[in-house]
Design a protein that fits this description.
One of its GO terms (cellular component) is cytoplasm. The protein is mainly beta and 99 residues long. It has one helix spanning 49-62; strands spanning 7-10, 13-21, 28-33, 36-40, 69-73, 79-85. It has one domain (7-85): Conserved Hypothetical Protein Mth637, Chain: A, CATH 3.30.1200.
Length: 99
Amino acid sequence: MTQSRFYRWDEGALILSCHLQPKASKDEISGLHADSVKIRITAPPIEGRANAHLIKYLAKLFGVPKSDVTIISGELGRAKRVRIENPSRLPDTLPIERD
């Protein structure tokens, strides 16, 4: 089974490459952007608010507590890698297959 380049599995955790668009009109996954998932969020990129909002949004989307979502790289930029521990659900909007 081949995996798309925007995600990979690491012992039950999902590693997701994201391209963030802060200050959007609504929170949504708006498709793929190169080798990343484009995620639009309403929070502004000020004082870590966008990162906190992204964690909250992804936790809700994948059915995990916020403590199970970690930004592992790209804290200060739009391109981020996020680790989601044992997601209980996968959003229909993303072509992700279980490992």
